[in-house]
Structure formats: structure tokens, C-alpha cells
Specification:
The complex is a heterodimer of chains A (about 300) and B (about 325).
Chain A lengths: L21 H10 L1 H23 L31 H37 L1 H16 L2 H12 L3 H28 L2 H8 L4 H9 L4 H24 L11 H8 L8 H28 L6
Helix pairs in contact in A: 1-11, 2-3, 2-11, 3-4, 3-6, 3-9, 4-6, 5-6, 6-9, 7-8, 9-10, 9-11, 10-11
Chain B lengths: L4 E16 L4 E17 L3 E5 L6 H8 L7 E6 L2 E2 L5 H7 L3 E4 L13 H12 L4 H14 L16 H13 L5 E5 L7 H18 L2 E6 L2 H7 L2 E6 L2 E7 H6 L4 H8 L40 H5 L15 E2 L4 H9 L1
Parallel strand pairs in B: 3-8, 3-9, 6-7, 7-8
Antiparallel strand pairs in B: 1-2, 1-4, 4-5, 9-10, 10-11
Classes of the chains: A mainly alpha (about 300), B alpha/beta (about 325).
Chain lengths: ~300, ~325
């Protein structure tokens, strides 16, 4: 039969072949300067976390009262704290802790939030109402208060901070995933595979999840920033990482007592937190723009 | 042709609850499909026509159990589909397929064409793994695409080509009945004709039966053997194509047909313009559903629901749901 329409095939460059246009997203991301700055900062933080501790000369934990509260100098780049420890060394060692908390707590949030959201959005009705009302209860707590409550029940440690911050990020993921699932499951291709006899699980895993990854990735990136901030806040309040662990929030908290006479003790951990949060926020915003075909950043 | 009934729909209803009020109670129903019955004979093409919102698509989806019917039976090949468990329905699905309206929404954008087709085979497990790729390519060829296009993604195809992919997917399981839900409505006129001809050719090659859902009477005239006219969730008239186009009985069908553009300017014809809008299917009119807009309305129409019935001079199988269609027909014939 006549096949004339074949000639109207939209010819799209081979780089687009990655279904989702993964390389397209990368191209748009590259054009977005602030996002790339965020991306490079994240890369920098990861490199520091992995290799930094091998390069520092001081022990981050060893107390030496002879070098107490020294200002920044060529010997101690960012000065020393009230226990005579090199702040730069401690910051470098704290990077991995910060990233560890950030990534892992978001992973906890994902593992709980995504299934809740998918089932809620896919099955709807009573299940949806039930899950969403539970999420509403979680959302009714001010975020930090919820984390404080959880940590005070569980006890202060890095792992408990991760659990607390993870649970705190569940509502965000569940809501976003629910919304996207509802949108995708109304599309005709879902009906088409259902008409072929696919099971619900198959539809969810093979046809819904791959089509909602972009909002999940964006949300996860921005959530990492929030998680770092909350975790630092908890440590600042003495509920998170316990001294002498060189966690940035805990360092900030300890430096607070010396803030007026020796501002560098509090200043640099604070700047480090700002840097990390900013990095993930910039990158997350950039990702969102890159995934959104409407914005030609 | 031996007249074997392939699909029998009996008293099918689909009501959508309207939630509202405190704690989402059901306050009312949208009666999208309200008690329709018809048969589809093996090998024929039956069209379901009507304006938007008359429930024709919902009827198709309820037959497939993509929407759970509220009431009624759907008997396919002597099996009551509406009574099967979810698991049994999944097996049954290989005999009943659907082609959708929107070729851009009906294919997962993240799967290659061959993956789309192979998945169908994988779900029903009807072709051994190593033969699936070949089968997918055969299917592509059957719908007029080429083997080299198998590893492309949906966005690399035009609308007409995507619709061909949708048809290949429906064909992949060797179904007996395919429901074409506005399958050509989204296509350009030139491509529409190609797809219609492809559907006809496939029907011949694969002994398919079509339930063709459309609002486009021109398309329906081209492809159907029999036509069912729906209005506001109910069937108004059922007839073979010839009787319906040449001797329509129901006032609604007559109005519908008079709206088809005629390719001959200056040709005189009766144009029936209906006043008002389609009433809401939440609270449909009592009696005959059409009475609020019918030019021939009488008191009886407002209270008594007309049954589908035949009259002496009508061809076999031609039935209409109107109390007065003999009178209206004879008046217009003179």
C-alpha cells in the first residue's frame, strides 16, 4: 500500500536517540551557567570528601591546647578552634559526613516516599485518601520540629539524623510522585499495555516509573540541600552528630561561644554549609529547567 | 458468511460517581452509558457513532474492562467477560484489542518500537523469546513500516506512522476483535484514508472484527457494515449502513446525517438544525433522551422511554428507539 507519509519522518539528530532525550537534558543543563556552577561545586565537594582527608596534615580530633583559637595563618589556613584543632582539616573531614547525611537521608525519603506516592496515585480511592491523610499529618508538623521530635526519641547520632531527615522528606516525595503518577496513568499508553494484559506491577515499574524520573531527580537534588541544612541544624542544637565528630553544624554550634572574639571558629563551618546547600540548590533548579521542555534556558 | 455472534453486549451501564460534600460522599452519577445492548457478528465492522459525550468511548472501554462496567453483561465468544476475575481478564485480553485516538499519547515514549511490540508478546507469552524480534518486524511490515525502523523511538515517527505502530501493537496478539476508539480522528485527511484502507486490508488478511467508534460519519460510511447511533448514553438506532444512510428512522439520526457536508454545491437538501445543547448526562431527560431537542416531540416522549423496535417496511436488523418513527418517516418521504 501507499506509504507516502514515510517521507515526512521527522529527522532528529542521532544524539537524541536516548529515548528520554537524556543528552538533550544534558545539553540544556550545560547552557545553564548557574546550574553548571552548582554541578561543579557538587563535584568539588565529592572529590574533597573522597580524597581530602588523605591530603590534610593535621588530626581532626586531636586536642592541643597550645594552639587554641588561633586566627587563620599560613600554618593553620582557617585558624584553630577552642580545642586547638585545625578548622580546615576538620572541615575537609566533615565534608564526607555532610554528603553522607545528605545523600542517605534523601535515599531514605525516596525508598519510603516513592512507593507511597506511586501506589497512592495509581490505585487512588481509599488507599490514596489514607496515604495522603497520613502525609498531611506529617506535613502539619513544622519540618525541623518533626526532626527534633524524632531524634529526641531515637537519640542523637548521625544515623538517627539520617532517619529523621529521611522521614521528614517523605511527604515531599510522596506528593510529587503521586501527582506525576496520576498524570501518567491517565495517558493512553497505560491503557494500551493494560489492554495487552499487563499486571499492575508491570505497568508501575516499566511504564510509570521511567516516565516520572525527572521530577523525582529534581526533587531529590533540592531535597539534599534541605537535608544538609536540617542535619546541620540538628547538630547545631546538639541533637545530631556529637562532638568531637567534625560535623559542620556541630562545629558551628561550638564556635558560637567564641563568635565575638574569634569569629573564624563559627564563620568557616557556616560558610561550608552555605556552599553545600547552594551547590545542590543551584544544580536542582538547573535540572528542573533542563527537564522542562517549555524552558529553553 | 455464517452469522456467528462474536460479541454480545447486554444492558451495559457505566455510571461514574460524582464525589462531593463532606468526606467525599457520592452525591450523584454521570450516566455515561445507560443500558445499551447490541451484537457484533464475526468478521463485520460495526460503528458506534454519536456526538462527543454520548458515551461511545466509554462503552468501548467498558467492553474491554478498562473501565469496570456498573451493570450488564459483555459476552465475548460465549464467555461473559464482565464476570471474569481480574486475572482471567488479563488472559482474555489477547483476543480483544484496542486502537486509541491519540497516536502521540498511546505509545510509551521511552520504549523503542520493537520493544513496544515485543512487550505485548512477552505479557501474553505467546511467542518464544528468540522469535519475538522477528515477529515484531513482521508486524511492522504488515502495517506498512519497515524493519529498519524497529529500533527507533516513538518521537522519531509522524502521527500516521505512530498510528500504524498502535495498530501493529493491537495486532500483535492475533486478536479476534479490535475496538478502534476514534482511531483516525486525530489524523490528517490524507493519512486518514491510508489508515482506513490499512484497517480494511488487515481485516481481510487477519479475519478481524472491528467495533469502530467515531463521530465522523464520512469515515463511518467508508468502513462500516452496520452502524449504531448513540445519544446521551443510549442507543437511538441500529441499522446496516445502507438503510441507515438511505432510510434513517430516528429523528436524531436524521439530524446527524443532515449535518454531513455534501461535496456538491447548490444541491438542495433538507437540513435539520437541532436547537439547544445536549442535556447533562448527570440528570438526563425523562422518557426519550432526545425529547428536549426533537423537532417532532409529543407528550408521550416526555414520559415513556421508547424501546428499540422494528417496523414492517424496515430492512432486517434495522431498529430504532422512537415512538413515532413510522409517522415521521412517511411524512418526510412524501
Amino acid at each position: 500500500m501507499d506509504n507516502r507519509e514515510d517521507t515526512i519522518t521527522v529527522d532528529i539528530s542521532p544524539s537524541l536517540k536516548g529515548a528520554s532525550g537524556g543528552s538533550m537534558v544534558y545539553k540544556r543543563l550545560k547552557r545553564n551557567k548557574t546550574a553548571m556552577i552548582g554541578g561543579y561545586l557538587i563535584l568539588f565537594l565529592i572529590i574533597v570528601a573522597l580524597f581530602g582527608p588523605l591530603l590534610t596534615v593535621y588530626d581532626p580530633l586531636k586536642v592541643d591546647f597550645g594552639t587554641r583559637l588561633l586566627p587563620p595563618s599560613s600554618e593553620f589556613w582557617l585558624g584553630t578552634d577552642h580545642n586547638g584543632r585545625d578548622i580546615f582539616t576538620r572541615l575537609v573531614h566533615g565534608t564526607s559526613i555532610t554528603l553522607y547525611i545528605g545523600f542517605l537521608s534523601v535515599a531514605v525519603g525516596l525508598v519510603i516516599g516513592v512507593p507511597l506516592g506511586v501506589f497512592s496515585g495509581y490505585y487512588g480511592k481509599i488507599l490514596d485518601s489514607f496515604i495522603m491523610r497520613c502525609i498531611d499529618v506529617l506535613l502539619a508538623f513544622p519540618g525541623i520540629l518533626l526532626a527534633i521530635a524524632l531524634v529526641s526519641v531515637l537519640g542523637g547520632s548521625i544515623n538517627n539524623v539520617i532517619i529523621a531527615v529521611g522521614i521528614f522528606s517523605v511527604p515531599g516525595f510522596a506528593r510529587i510522585v503521586r501527582g506525576s503518577t496520576m498524570a501518567v496513568s491517565k495517558l493512553e499508553y497505560i491503557d494500551a499495555v493494560r489492554a495487552l494484559g499487563a499486571s499492575d506491577l508491570r505497568i508501575i515499574i516499566l511504564h510509570i516509573l521511567p516516565n516520572i524520573v525527572s521530577p523525582i531527580i529534581v526533587q531529590a537534588t533540592i531535597r539534599i540541600a534541605i537535608a544538609i541544612l536540617i542535619a546541620s541544624g540538628l547538630s547545631f542544637l546538639g541533637l545530631g552528630a556529637q562532638p568531637p565528630i567534625p560535623e559542620w553544624g556541630a562545629m558551628l554550634s561550638q564556635g558560637r561561644s567564641y563568635m565575638f572574639d574569634h569569629p573564624h571558629v563559627a564563620l568557616y563551618p557556616g560558610l561550608a554549609i552555605v556552599l553545600a546547600v547552594l551547590a545542590f540548590n543551584l544544580f536542582g533548579d538547573g535540572l528542573r529547567d533542563a527537564f522542562d521542555p517549555q524552558s529553553k534556558g | 458468511m455464517a452469522a456467528k455472534v462474536l460479541l454480545q453486549v447486554k444492558g451495559l451501564k457505566k455510571y461514574f460517581p460524582i464525589k462531593g460534600g463532606f468526606l467525599g460522599r457520592t452525591v450523584n452519577y454521570v450516566k455515561a452509558v445507560d443500558d445499551i445492548s447490541f451484537n457484533v457478528i464475526e468478521g463485520e465492522t460495526v460503528s458506534l457513532v454519536g456526538e462527543s459525550g454520548c458515551g461511545k468511548s466509554t462503552a468501548g472501554r467498558a467492553i474491554l474492562r478498562l473501565e469496570e462496567p456498573t451493570a450488564g453483561e459483555v459476552i465475548f465468544n460465549n464467555v461473559d467477560i464482565s464476570a471474569l476475575s481480574k486475572k482471567e481478564v488479563r488472559k482474555m485480553r489477547k483476543d480483544l484489542q484496542i486502537i486509541f485516538q491519540d497516536p502521540y499519547a498511546s505509545i510509551n515514549p521511552r520504549q523503542t518500537v520493537s520493544r513496544v511490540l515485543e512487550e505485548a508478546l512477552q505479557i501474553q507469552n505467546i511467542v518464544p523469546v528468540e522469535q519475538r524480534k522477528d515477529r515484531a518486524i513482521d508486524l511492522l511490515k504488515a502495517v506498512g513500516l519497515a524493519a529498519y525502523q524497529a529500533d527507533r523511538f516513538p518521537h522519531e515517527f509522524s502521527g500516521g506512522q505512530r498510528q500504524r505502530i498502535g495498530i501493529a501493537r493491537a495486532l500483535s496478539l492475533n486478536p479476534k476483535l479490535i475496538i478502534c476508539d476514534e482511531a483516525v480522528s486525530a489524523l490528517d485527511v490524507s493519512i486518514r484514508a491510508q489508515i482506513l484502507n490499512l484497517l480494511k486490508k488487515l481485516q481481510h488478511d487477519y479475519q478481524l472484527t472491528y467495533l469502530f467508534i467515531s463521530h465522523d460519519l464520512g469515515v463511518v460510511r467508508h468502513i462500516s457494515d452496520r452502524i449504531i447511533v448513540m445519544y446521551l448514553g443510549r442507543i437511538m438506532e441500529i441499522a446496516d449502513k445502507r438503510s441507515l444512510f438511505e432510510a434513517p428512522r430516528h429523528p436524531y439520526t436524521r439530524a446527524l446525517l443532515s449535518a454531513i457536508p455534501v461535496p456538491r454545491p447548490g444541491k438542495k437538501r433538507e437540513r435539520i438544525v437541532l436547537s439547544g445543547d445536549v442535556p447533562s448526562s448527570i440528570d438526563p431527560p425523562e422518557g426519550c433522551r432526545f425529547h428536549t431537542r426533537c423537532p417532532y416531540v409529543r407528550d408521550k416522549c416526555k414520559t415513556e422511554v421508547p424501546e428499540l423496535r422494528s417496523a414492517g417496511d424496515m430492512s432486517a436488523g434495522h431498529i430504532a428507539a422512537c415512538h413515532y418513527f413510522e409517522e415521521i418517516y412517511s411524512r418526510s418521504a412524501n
